[in-house]
Specification:
Layout lengths: L2 E2 L4 E3 L2 E3 L4 E2 L4 E2 L4 E3 L2 E4 L3 E4 L7 H11 L7 E3 L5 H4 L2 H6 L5 E4 L1 H11 L4 E4 L5 E3 L4 E6 L9 E5 L4 E5 L18 H16 L3 H13 L6 E4 L10 H10 L7 E6 L5 H16 L4 E6 L5 H10 L2 E5 L9 H13 L5 E8 L5 H11 L3 E2 L4 E4 L4 H18 L1
Parallel strand pairs: 8-9, 9-10, 10-11, 15-16, 17-18, 17-19, 19-20, 20-21, 20-22
Antiparallel strand pairs: 1-2, 2-7, 3-6, 4-5, 7-8, 12-13, 13-14, 14-15
Helix pairs in contact: 5-9, 6-7, 8-12, 10-11
Length: about 400
C-alpha cells in the first residue's frame, strides 16, 4: 500500500520480506529489504526510481491505482542497477515518449540492460527540473556505488533522494528510522557500508562535503533500500563521514578455517593471549567456512587488526579463507594491521601465503606469522598465547 512521506511525496515501492541474498549470492539479507520508489506530485508529477524486475508487474498495477499513467509527466532514474530500474520496461510501456531523467552514464547503463531507446534526458550536478512550486535539483554521485549514480533534492519539501547512499537492507512495515529497532538499523547500516561502500570511502567523504557546500536545508533522506531518515537525518550523514575516515574500533578479529581442529585450537589460544594482555579490547573469532561472509566482513571493517589462519593443504590455503581474503582485497580496507597463523604437517606454506595475501589487500603486517606442526601440545599452546600477548602489545 502507498505510504505518505510528505505533502507531495508518497512511497510506492515494494517491501521484500523473503529476500535472503542480494547481488546474486554475494550479499546476505537476513532481514529482507525494500525497493523504494517515490511518487512526487506538484503541478507536474514525477516517479523517482522503480523496483526490482520480479516485482515489475505488481508495482505498475499498484502505482496506477494511485495515479493514472496519463498524469505522470516525468520518470527519474537515479541508478540503473536492476533493483532500482527493473520495472522501467513495464512502466515505460504505459508511458510512451515520456522523458526519463538520469545521468549521462545511466543512459549507457539503461540501454545496456534493457536495449530500449527511451526519451532520455541526461542531467548533471546543478541541473534542475521544475515540478511547479517545487523543483528537483540533481547531484551526480559517480561510484556511490556505480558510475551512473545520482542524488536529487526536492526543494520546498527539503528532501534528499539519495539512492543507494545512506540505505540498508531492512524490510519494515513502517519504513521510517524512528519506527524500527535502532539496534537492527545500526547493524544493517554498517554492514551495508562495510560490504558495498568501503572501496569508495574517499568519494563518500568528497560527495558529502560537496552536498553540504550547496547549503540546502535537509528535513528528510529518502533512500532506495530500507528506511527513510526523517528523525534527525543528519545522523546517518555523520556516521558515513566517520566510516569513510579509515574507520576502526578497539577490536581484533581472528578468522580461520581448520581441517582437524589444530588451527582452531591455535586461534582460541592466540585469542586468550590477546585478551589477557589487552582486556579492554574486543576480540572476536570466526570459522569463516561456517560464518556468514558479509557479517565477517563487517567485523573486519570494525577492527583495528585481523588475524588470518589456515592449515596448509596442497601447498596452499583452505578455500574459505582464500575467499575472504579476496573479498578483503577488493574492498581495499585502510588503516588496518594483520598477522597470520596456521598448522601444518610436512610442508607448511600457508602462513607465508596468508601474509602475502594480507599485504596485497593493503594490510600492514605485524611481525612474523606463527606456524606450528601437527596438533599443538602444551608448549605449542603457550607459544600461541604468548604470540597473542606480544601482538596485543604491538597493536596498543
Amino acid at each position: 500500500m502507498p505510504i505518505k512521506v510528505s505533502d507531495s511525496v508518497t512511497w510506492v515501492g515494494k517491501i521484500d520480506w523473503e529476500l535472503r541474498s542480494f547481488h546474486g549470492e554475494e550479499y546476505s539479507t537476513h532481514r529482507g529489504t525494500s525497493y523504494n520508489s517515490y511518487l512526487v506530485r506538484d503541478r507536474k508529477t514525477a516517479i523517482i526510481d522503480t523496483v526490482w524486475t520480479p516485482f515489475a508487474g505488481e508495482y505498475v498495477k499498484r502505482l496506477f491505482d494511485v495515479v493514472p499513467p496519463e498524469q505522470i509527466d516525468f520518470v527519474v532514474a537515479l541508478h540503473a542497477e536492476p533493483d532500482h530500474s527493473g520495472a522501467l520496461p513495464e512502466l515505460m510501456r504505459h508511458l510512451p515518449g515520456k522523458p526519463v531523467y538520469c545521468s549521462a552514464n545511466a543512459v549507457k547503463s539503461l540501454r545496456g540492460h534493457y536495449h530500449q531507446d527511451w526519451n532520455f534526458q541526461p542531467m548533471g550536478t546543478g541541473d534542475r527540473l521544475s515540478l511547479g512550486d517545487r523543483e528537483l535539483i540533481f547531484v551526480e554521485a559517480p561510484m556511490l556505488h556505480w558510475p551512473d549514480s545520482m542524488f536529487c533534492y526536492l526543494s520546498g519539501e527539503e528532501i534528499l533522494f539519495s539512492n543507494d547512499a545512506f540505505g540498508q537492507h531492512l524490510a519494515a512495515e513502517h519504513p521510517f528510522n524512528d519506527r524500527v529497532d535502532p539496534c537492527e538499523l545500526q547493524a544493517e547500516c554498517i554492514k551495508y557500508y562495510a560490504n558495498i561502500l568501503t572501496p569508495f570511502s574517499p568519494l563518500v567523504k568528497k560527495k558529502i562535503e560537496e552536498f553540504v557546500s550547496l547549503k540546502l536545508p535537509l528535513k528528510m533522506i529518502c533512500t532506495s533500500h530500507g528506511v527513510i531518515w526523517r528523525d534527525n537525518p543528519l545522523q546517518i550523514v555523520e556516521q558515513y563521514l566517520a566510516w569513510a575516515e579509515n574507520y576502526q574500533e578497539d577490536q581484533i578479529t581472528l578468522f580461520y578455517d581448520t581441517m582437524w581442529n589444530a588451527t582452531r585450537i591455535m586461534a582460541e589460544a592466540i585469542a586468550d593471549g590477546l585478551r589477557e594482555a589487552a582486556p579492554a579490547t574486543t576480540v572476536k573469532l570466526f570459522n569463516c567456512a561456517r560464518s556468514d561472509k558479509n557479517d565477517l566482513i563487517t567485523e573486519i571493517f570494525r577492527s583495528k587488526a585481523v588475524l588470518a589462519g589456515s592449515p596448509t593443504i596442497n601447498q596452499g590455503i583452505l578455500s574459505a579463507v582464500a575467499g575472504i581474503l579476496e573479498e578483503m582485497r577488493g574492498l581495499r580496507f585502510r588503516n588496518k594491521r594483520a598477522a597470520a597463523f596456521g598448522s601444518f604437517g610436512w610442508s607448511g606454506e600457508a602462513v607465508k601465503m596468508l601474509q602475502d595475501r594480507l599485504a596485497e589487500g593493503g594490510f600492514e603486517l605485524v611481525g612474523e606469522g606463527l606456524r606450528l606442526s601437527w596438533q599443538p601440545d602444551r608448549d605449542g599452546l603457550e607459544s600461541c598465547r604468548e604470540y597473542g600477548r606480544q601482538l596485543a602489545g604491538r597493536l596498543a
